[in-house]
Fold this protein.
Amino acid sequence: MQIYLDYSATTPTRPEAIAQMQQILTQQWGNPSSLHEWGQRAATVVERARVQVADLINAAPDSIIFTAGGTEADNLAIMGIAQQYSVPQHLIISSVEHSAISEPARLLEQWGWQVTRLPVNAQGRVNPQDLQAALQTNTVLVSVIYGQSEVGTLQPIEPLGRIAQAHGALFHVDAVQVAGRLPIDVQRLPVDLLSLSSHKIYGPQGAGALYVRPGVELMPLLNGGGQEFKLRSGTQAVPVIAGFGIAAELAAEEMATETPRLIQLRDRLFDQLADVPELMPTGDRLHRLPHHVSFCLLNADGEKLSGKTLVRQMNLAGIGISAGSACHSGKLVPSPILVAMGYGDRTAKSGIRLTLGRPTTLEDIDWTALVLKQILQRVAPAPVCGACPGMS
């Protein structure tokens, strides 16, 4: 029995998207920039997908810029704004951003920009008052992740966006984990830029999009033929864009039933593991991604028992989960997300994430809980004190 529970990392491409891609590859394979019939058939495919993706977030189609993925969309948002300024300005991000935001911010610091990283509470949530206090006269952009991929916490996007825009700063949101799982309406949300990814919503890998509110100006990262409204040069990847469009359309149609189902399964898994003394839930239980379950090990002992240890053990049992810590030069490094939330280095090496998807069943949840309990009984030492946020 094999159970995949890493849907925040990637989702399988749904059959409807694959069928659409196969049709494009064999029948509508032209260059969308060409004026002849072959090119115009391909251009029609791209524009249809643009409408489908735009509808997922209630956006105007011409506000959608196709990219190669969520990372490029994030980089286009950050650097597309920053490159307009000849003098370094001020950028605000949260301390729990995906590396697609935190790394461009680090690069801007090297260029002389001032970067403020907003603190979070023990559940990983930003206090809007901290954003208000951090704003400066030269703050030009605020970027906050909507749903944190490692611990599942949802940020208070509406008040954060209102504060940023009232100050005159642009507001960017990385919504890669949220889109297709929770409703997004950019006509209502105070966002100027918003990033999406195809392979998080059962579309193909290699496609993403950046929503750009009308009137917001960006500098392109890539220069060339001027495709995507002169913001993303390069011949569009028509098949994967088409697959992205189909996935977005179906996600919008299914959300009303799929999201409550995922929440029910998510809560069942949390409940079934609630009596396991070695596991401490991470993230905000109330403001949370509907498909996301995460824990730290209370009795982690660094290199011997870590999140990666559990990933390997679960994999041997046929269950795919993920860990938040990373290995650099052979040494386990604490998760920067958990460190930002106040966890000590030892505990911050022990985070695990189980994320659910369309194929996940009730039986999968029950079996996963049973297997995880058995593994912990076998490999975990007795619980120790001092593992909670603020302790080592």
Summary: The two ends are 37 Å apart (CA to CA). DSSP finds eleven helices and 15 strands in the chain. The longest strand covers residues 139-145.
